[in-house]
Amino acid sequence: MANMQFSMIGDDFGPLFHYQYRLILIGDSTVGKSSLLKYFTEGRMAEMSDPTVGVDFYARMIELRPGLRVKLQLWDTAGQEKFRSITRSYYRNSVGVIVVYDITSRASFEHVPGWLREAEANVGGPYPGQCVFLLVGHKADRDGERQVQYEEGEYLAKHHKMQFLETSAVTGENVLETFMMVAHEINGRLETGALKTMDGWEGIKKGSQRAQSICLSDAGLTGNDASSCSC
Ligand SMILES: Nc1nc2c(ncn2[C@@H]2O[C@H](COP(=O)(O)OP(=O)(O)OP(=O)(O)O)[C@@H](O)[C@H]2O)c(=O)[nH]1
Ligand SMILES: [Mg+2]
What we know:
Helix content is 35%, strand content 22%. It starts with a helix and ends in a 13-residue tail after the last helix. Helix 1 (2-13) runs antiparallel to helix 8 (210-218). It contains 8 helices and 7 strands. The longest helix has 18 residues, at 175-192. The model is unreliable at 1-12 and 211-231 (pLDDT under 50). It has helices at residues 2-13, 33-42, 84-88, 106-110, 112-122, 150-159, 175-192, 210-218, and strands at 19-26, 55-65, 68-77, 96-102, 132-138, 163-166, 204-206. Strands 1, 2, 3, 4, 5, 6 and 7 form a 7-stranded mixed beta sheet that branches. The protein has a single domain (19-227), classed as 3-Layer(aba) Sandwich (Rossmann fold). By secondary structure, the chain is an alpha/beta fold. The structure holds guanosine-5'-triphosphate and magnesium ion. Magnesium ion binds at residues 33-34, 51-52, 76. InterPro entries: P-loop_NTPase, Rab_GTPases_membrane_traffic, Small_GTP-bd, Small_GTPase. It is a lipid-anchor.
């Protein structure tokens, strides 16, 4: 009976999330950053997509494994040059960077090294060198108009020691996989100690611990008894 009560408390009032990771999406204007984020957070392609003004914000909860919930806070930056000074300030509090190009735009692919340089120069946290990068070749549904071969994207990513996927906000191909891949990599680095939380840095934050206080009082555990609570 006691066990049943514990599991009910755990299921209903467990921490909403265990960690929060902040990610930033960068890349040229019109490559499809906002559309990718809308698909990931709303489950469908946006009917219209205006150029982002400065920075926009999205969020979604994911489960990395049963019982391990992570809230992803996603900064969607404007690709247009005129917003660069605004968007630059968002790197510092990000633990993951997704660099997006459009497979039908050679120029957007050629600008990837510049975006990477800018990100590497501005990321923060206790170990800026451990920031997780992922390269995305977007609009994979427009294969007939392709200007960048899959192998070129793969090669560039390997050269910069980052993972690579081609995605589409029309078909949904690899959209979930993109964010899961980054989150798993961050989680892995957290577990090995290569990454950690730091006061004053928003890249990784611990989630709400509300469950424990509810559990202790509801289960009637006080004083020394509380130390035996395993929730
Ligand atoms: N075919 C196709 N079109 C897409 C895809 N993703 C986005 N688009 C279109 O590409 C255009 C630009 O998309 P946005 O998501 O606004 O691009 P962005 O990178 O956010 O642009 P900025 O906010 O200016 O930096 C829009 O017309 C979208 O409908 C995709 O996967 N496939
Ligand atoms: Mg946008």
